[in-house]
Amino acid sequence: MSAPVLEDLELYPISVPLRHRFRRVDRREAVLIHGPSGWGEFSPFPDYPPEVTTRWLAAALEAACSEWPKPVRSHVLVNVTVPSVDPVTAYEMVAASGCRTAKVKVADPGQRHEDDLERLAAVRDAIGPGGKVRIDVNAAWDLDTAIERLTEMARFDLEYAEQPVRTIEDMIELRRKVPVRIAADESVRMAADPLEVAERGAADILVLKVQPMGGVVRALDLARRSGLPAVVSSALETSVGIAAGLTAAATLPVLDFACGLGTVSLFEGDVVADPLLPVGGEIEVRRPEPTRELLDKYEADRDTAAELLRRLRWAAEVLT
């Protein structure tokens, strides 16, 4: 896909504030792309280089210019995502969500281990003994720390720990030493060979994100070839991007775990009038479209728009 093709599409740079700081950002910035097949979203995080953002662009172009596969289910169970907030806020988020699974961010910079434990205790209390709690570490721990902390956190009856350590070697060793299932995220989407983690027995579960994986079709192909259970998760997108994740989750032949697609609730607003929010812990599989009024409301300022479009074209040049 070459950069001139972008000139045939409608590009809308946007910036939407978040309710809580997440992944070191307070706003979610993106370029929405409108093409013959609908809307796509290009929203890589600001620190990602073009060799990474090309996958995000490929996913956006797939959504705007190609047809997605047909889903086999009409609704997808999702978890509530709890950022690095205080215990009271964590409890309130879970209680209000209607979800029976919660994913809790831990090991964020500036947070103490005690903060993580207090947040986890509040989430477990809010969701009750029948609910499921998983954690997301974003590869922040070394192996020794991961062994110590997962052994301690096992008392919260964790469903799994997402990317506790960075390397595949450490994940293999960690699986041998802790009583908690290990899910792979960064070691799949950031890897030169995304199947290596499955082939080497480094994870029990794959976390698949459509934008970082290059689109719905590529994510589904990876799930099929890995032979592992998959959890389709968001990359903190507007409802435009979440629609792609929902389609992927709804197309998987087997879906054993709740998916991490309930993140639109972390936004102060959205570009669609009928956001993809969970009801009773699940989201209906549909594809809402942005409205002109909301595109105008969340239009990025001139400098931000220029930077977003520069990064988009930068990715397109590498994708060529």
Number of strands: 12
What is the chain-wise order of helices and strands? HEEEHEEHEHEHEHEHHEHHEHEHH
Strand content: 15-25%
* Molecular shape: globular
CATH superfamily of the largest domain: Enolase-like C-terminal domain
CATH topology of the largest domain, by name, is: TIM Barrel
Total number of helices: 13
Write the layout of secondary structure elements.
Blueprint: H1 3-6, E1 10-22, E2 25-35, E3 38-42, H2 50-65, E4 75-77, E5 80-82, H3 87-97, E6 101-105, H4 113-127, E7 132-136, H5 143-153, E8 158-162, H6 168-177, E9 182-184, H7 186-189, H8 196-199, E10 205-208, H9 210-213, H10 216-226, E11 230-232, H11 239-251, E12 282-284, H12 292-297, H13 302-319
Helix pairs in contact: 2-13, 3-4, 10-11
Summarize the structure.
The protein has 320 residues and is an alpha/beta fold. The chain has helices at 3-6, 50-65, 87-97, 113-127, 143-153, 168-177, 186-189, 196-199, 210-213, 216-226, 239-251, 292-297, 302-319; strands at 10-22, 25-35, 38-42, 75-77, 80-82, 101-105, 132-136, 158-162, 182-184, 205-208, 230-232, 282-284. The protein folds into two domains: 3-68 and 292-319, Enolase-like, N-terminal domain (Enolase-like, domain 1, 2-Layer Sandwich); 75-284, TIM Barrel, CATH 3.20.20.120.
Key descriptive features of the protein:
single chain, 320 residues, Enolase-like, domain 1, TIM Barrel, seven-stranded parallel sheet, three-stranded antiparallel sheet, 13 helices, 12 strands, 40% helix
